[in-house]
Amino acid sequence: MMQVSVEAVLNKLTSEVAAARQQHNTAKVREHLAAIRALCDLVLEEQQEAQIAPAAMLEQRPVHTAPSFSPAPVLLKEEGANGGSLLDF
Questions:
Q1: How far, in Å, CA of 4 to CA of 11, rounded?
Q2: According to the model, what pLDDT value does residue 45 have?
Q3: Most exposed: 49, 54, 71, 83, by fewest CB within 10 Å?
């Protein structure tokens, strides 16, 4: 993803605000305000992704653990029981 400098966005925001103030048409003012919102979202999302990226990289690291061994099941040897089945009584 291409990084946009905050300074460039602030310059564009300034020009959009100036253009909005010169408009007398409400629809045109709203267009400039929408552009301002988009520019703000661009910077805020970019900064949020920059904060999330290191955390995401930590989660993606492979974890090497020793293989776990599960103990063999313990069968109860009671009188009248004839195996390891759940249906044996």
A1: 12
A2: 85
A3: 71
Structure confidence at residue 15 (pLDDT): 95
**In this structure, is the dihedral angle defined by the CA atoms of residues 8, 14, 18 and 19, taken in order, positive or negative?**
positive
Q: Which of 44, 47, 39, 42 is nearest to 13 (CA)?
A: 39
Q: What is the 3-state secondary structure (H, E, C) of the chain?
A: CCCCCHHHHHHHHHHHHHHHHHCCCHHHHHHHHHHHHHHHHHHHHHHHHHHHHHHHHHHHCCCCCCCCCCCCCCCCCCCCCCCCCCCCC
**pTM for the model:** 0.53
Residues of the chain with pLDDT under 70: 1-3, 52-89
